[in-house]
Predict the structure.
Amino acid sequence: MGDFLNVSNSLSGRRWVGPNAETERAALHLEQQTDLAAPLCRILAQRSVTPETAKQFLEPTLRDLLPDPHQLLDMEKAARRFLKAVQSNEKIAIFADYDVDGGTSAALLIDWLRQMGREATLYVPDRIDEGYGPNDEAMAKLAASHDLIVCVDCGTLSHGPVKAAVGADVVILDHHLGEETLPDAVAVVNPNRQDESGELAHLCAAAVVFLMLVEANRQLRSGGAKGPDLMAMLDLVALATVADVAPLIGVNRALVQQGLKVMAQRNRPGLVALADTARADSAPNSYHLGFLYGPRVNAGGRIGKADLGARLLATNDPSEAEALAQKLDELNTERREIEESVRAAALEQAESRGIDAPLVWAAGQGWHAGVVGIVASRLKEATNRPAIVIGLNDGEGKGSGRSIAGVDLGASIHRLVTEGLLLKGGGHKMAAGLTVAEDKLEAAMERLSELLAKQGAGDAGPADLRLDGLLMGAGATVELVQDIEKAGPFGAGAPAPRFAFPDQQIFFTKRVGESHLKLTFGDGIGQRIEAICFGAFDKPLGSALENHNGARFHLAGRLEINTWGGRQKIQLRLEDAAAASSA
């Protein structure tokens, strides 16, 4: 298969790869057998959708896709113990992780309990002082005044803290990688336990909590009672699924698609306040969840007060929601500034160490623990290598890592813990956290690099840019994007289609903020199209396009609808470009 548009080395150093002949044939067959638009058929063909399965794929329903909660070990026990606490008016505490998945998981439980006339204590650990997951002191304190502690999005590795919860029962609802032995809790519901089949490994914690509530409602019904309306809670599950970068496959597609419909009804004060603060003026889609709402909910856990996000999502008071959303918006702006300074320093350090190694890493004194994960993501994207970024304080480093497809970072981090090179560590294939003694930092990173090399981490060149086809200016319409969106929601494991516009003239460019670029382009025949390229000046792309001197370019990216003042127009989210003459 040749390079698409003959681009073997774009301005980002990438090779462009188009759809293969087999996909093209399958797309044509779909188009002939259904009345669906050609670009939509191309996307469906890449997802291996056939004419027979197209309708079901385009309209995923929970009735067809929701797994039986009993598929997960300990589920029946977890729901039974939870209901006993509700019916006996016991005191319930919810111990939640400080990210979006933890916050939404807690909010789901608080909302359900409130509708049943019950309250719960919310506890979210401080990222800096307490770190990830349950700790002995907090669990002992909660156990002294509660009968049941429900740990959400954490707890699977917390043997000591569960033991410390003397006098209370503990139920764990999580999705992080488990070890061979589990904590001594009443129930550990987790699709990533080692004794699970792995069929539901793609669920985030909020989806696990949702399934537990499905089972709780079922047990209530069998006793002649009725539980709250769970369909109305799918807005929270959708937010968690997208923000936690869970792959949008199987039931996750249905959860997000249905959840977006619920969100559009604007019934949850916290999400309404979030949307208004982020100035989102169109119906929510997965972009809003991942890039506008998720970072704001996360900002509290990163650099502010850890429980702000969960409190915002759980409140039913519009004025409290407005105040919390405002605070999170301010923290998010602050987080971006901190992130930018750490990112620049980390990139410089990683480059001096060499970015062709199987692992790209950087560590710095005082780097804020709340942004190391985002910066690791940026390093991973820039190098197409697994990346670890560590903040050092008082002889200890707390870090976060992100991986590339096909390289299991979580398992390698686990290995380092068992080998004594890390003090703590855990996660899943694509993301992990770790704590390391500063004097073992170099040895730990060297060993981790060795383990990742065995999985092929150092073999990747800059990632190929996969394209779904060519588009001319006249073909880029609002109707086309609406058609394409039927194959959504798009996100992790189900990327939005990417198109190339060949041989384009650039009419206008403007730098936005530190590193973004706005431009207008066209082929001289069809319409002129506006584009935005985020992080353009982090690579040669920005200056090449800004100083184009009339040169023409092939431009590649994803189409979206920009709604402004009630009017809709097309915008390209530009990801790459190549000089048309040299390509």
Summary: The first strand starts at residue 16 and ends at 17. The CA atoms of residues 58 and 398 lie 43 Å apart.
